[in-house]
Structure formats: C-alpha cells, structure tokens
Amino acid sequence: MTYRLKYDSAAEAVHEAMPQAANEALTLVLAAACHDPLGVTEPYGEDAASCG
Question: What is the model's pTM?
Fold first, then answer.
C-alpha cells in the first residue's frame, strides 16, 4: 500500500511561519510518518473503531 502526505500551500505557509524549533520538530515527525506511517501514527475517528 502506498501512503502520501497531503501538504498544500496553506499547510506549507503555516509550517514555514512556525518558530524554528517547532518547524524542525514538525519536519522530523512528518518525515517519520512518511517513512513508516503505520509504525509512528495512531488511528483515530472511524479508523480507531475498526482497530479494536
């Protein structure tokens, strides 16, 4: 299964406007989620109900 991060220009603008430390932390989290989406994320909403 292929996963893709949806990251539009509005999200990019918010990311770039963050303080440097927060920007770097978010970058690392997003990279980890792209590398191993099932290992570093938790289901929520409708997906969480089907995991139980």
Answer: 0.66
